[in-house]
Design brief:
GO terms for molecular function: DNA binding. The protein has about 290 residues and is of the alpha+beta class. It has two domains: about 90 residues, 434 Repressor (Amino-terminal Domain) (Orthogonal Bundle); about 170 residues, Beta-Lactamase, CATH 3.30.450. The protein is built from twelve helices and six strands. A hairpin with a 4-residue loop joins strand 5 and strand 6. The longest helix has 21 residues.
């Protein structure tokens, strides 16, 4: 998972962020997260390395954040830390603000409520992702990574479903011409809805500006179509298990404007078998 985002907080802001992060780490009971408490421990809460593993970042970066000298964390890193530390919704919002991510009614929400996290945790048998209203990827589970590749290997700015689609950033996706046309029309109509709901959000404006570099987006954006993107059909071309035909089921979260995307095996295909093989890879001989 990458660390930095565009822009930065002040040195004072980074210091306050670090103090809060350390306090939350110290109060976290390792046992509630399945961390072995019987090993000799010099700290009452989580070790830095344990928090780093749970959040998918490096221990060195956790140390930098706590010391107020790390690069400003992206929203995705903040959400991963909040999830690992089991922060409340209020604490999660505070963490985002300390990192310089504006939270307010005129900005696209990125906070993943605890209620949504509980739902997401019950769906590990399916590739799953959580996006904001601009289709920025905020969270994904291990099976999502197994199917599509690791999003953390890409810059945060490239982890947007619209950027990936219009700039062709994921070589594992296969779409027919008709599926691609429908999918792109639906995404653009959905983005127009978001742009109308958050007209003053600079992140929305920046996304549209970047997408406008592609002729296909400009063509579709010129059409005044407004609609919600609700479903899609995708085929993942996996290097080990072959083609996986999937249906994307989009669950909108009304109060937070988030979208949970749950990928399910397309009926009449071997997709479920392929997903099961990715869930339980064969053991390698010792």
């Amino acid at each position: 998972m990458d660390h930095a985002r565009t822009g930065s907080t002040t040195r004072e802001g980074r210091s306050i962020f670090g103090v809060a992060l350390r306090a939350w780490r110290d109060r976290t009971d390792p046992a509630t997260l399945g961390v072995d408490r019987h090993a000799a421990r010099r700290v009452t809460g989580l070790r830095r390395g344990e928090l780093a593993t749970l959040a998918g970042i490096s221990a060195e970066y956790v140390a930098q954040l706590e010391q107020g000298r790390g690069a400003t964390p992206s929203a995705q890193v903040c959400l991963a830390l909040a999830r690992a530390l089991q922060l409340s919704d209020t604490e999660q919002a505070h963490l985002l603000r300390l990192a310089g991510h504006v939270v307010g009614p005129d900005r696209v929400p990125r906070l993943i409520p605890a209620s949504v996290r509980r739902v997401v945790d019950q769906l590990d048998a399916h590739p799953l992702s959580v996006h904001d209203a601009t289709w920025q990827l905020l969270h994904w589970n291990p099976l999502f990574t197994a199917v599509w590749g690791d999003p953390s290997e890409a810059p945060a700015a490239d982890r947007n479903a619209m950027i990936i689609q219009f700039e062709g950033l994921n070589p594992r996706v296969r779409q027919s011409a008709a599926e691609r046309d429908w999918f792109e029309r639906s995404l653009v109509a959905d983005l127009r809805t978001t742009a109308g709901r958050y007209p003053g959000d600079p992140d929305v404006a920046a996304l549209i500006e970047r997408l406008d570099r592609t002729a296909r987006f400009r063509e579709l954006w010129a059409r005044p179509v407004v609609a919600a993107h609700e479903s899609a059909h995708k085929v993942a071309v996996h290097p080990e298990v072959g083609e996986i035909a999937l249906d994307a089921n989009i669950l909108p979260i009304q109060d937070s404007d988030l979208r949970i995307v749950v990928l399910t095996a397309r009926p009449g295909t071997d997709a479920r078998g392929a997903l099961d093989r990715l869930l339980s890879p064969p053991r390698r001989p010792c």
